[in-house]
Amino acid sequence: MTASHPLDRPVWSMLTGRQAHLAEGDARAMRIDRGYGVFGAAADAGDDAQAALAALVPADGELWIVEGAPWPLPPGTRGVKRAVLAQMVADGAAPPARPGEPAIIALGDGDAPEMAALADHARPGPWGPKTHRYGPFFGIREEGRLLAMAGQRILVPGMAEVSGVATWADCRGRGLARTLIGHVMRQMVARGETPFLHSYADNAGAIGLYESLGFRIRREVHVLAIAK
Asked: Which residue ranges form the domains of the chain, and what is each CATH number?
């Protein structure tokens, strides 16, 4: 199966490209290192590749497939969830920092328990014990408490995904997500990469925020979560 652009098959592109060092599987099907998350992809929708993808589904968890078109269920699996995402790209200038923005700090292994707790609360997407190691993550603290975070996940040639955007419910409405997304975007652009992201297609509020930061909808992509 071929794609005209790496983002048409984002998970396959990441696992066979810049993040191949995180992949489990073989040329028929791959999944991300289980500590990092739940994403997987098959080379194509043929029987051999589908069987190889099914073999990568954990006994007690899920595998998430993200494709440009709806994906058929691999044999021996059941569908847990289907959803449509808006894939958005920011191919212009990154938004400048605004006067008076709160201090932004780099996050790392020492912050992992707080990051996991925030991800469990805000549900920015699948989160595993090593998800914070996908790439640079940044946060905003106040009186020692981690209020919000954002970072990166999928890397494809010349592009990086803004991901893990999360804010505690009692801290929303303060522009913390906007501040952090802008910071992550500036970091990516400084490295010569184009930012992209994914949002549930029916989340009008989030899409409006991303559009105000310079993102545009590129296409729809489809998520299929499967289990044994």
From this structure: 6-83 (no CATH), 88-219 (3.40.630.30)
Judge contact between 107 and 119, C-beta under 8 A. Answer: no
H/E stretch holding 120 reads: helix 112-122
Q: List all residues 6 or more positions away from 123 whose beta carbon is below 8 Å from its beta carbon.
A: 166
Low-confidence spans in the chain with pLDDT less than 70: 1-3
Region of 227 please: left (phi>0), alpha (psi -120 to 50) or beta. Answer: beta
Tell me the three state secondary structure of residue 91: coil
Report pLDDT for 227.
Answer: 98
**Using an 8 Å Cβ cutoff, are 1 and 44 in contact?**
yes
Catalogue the E-assigned strands of 9-62.
23-26, 29-32, 39-42
The torsion angles phi and psi of 47, rounded to 5 degrees, stand at: -60, -45
pLDDT 10s digits, 112-170: 999 999 999 999 999 999 999 998 999 999 999 999 999 999 999 999 999 999 999 99
**Rounded to whole angstroms, how far apart are CA atoms 93 and 108?**
27
pLDDT of residue 4: 84
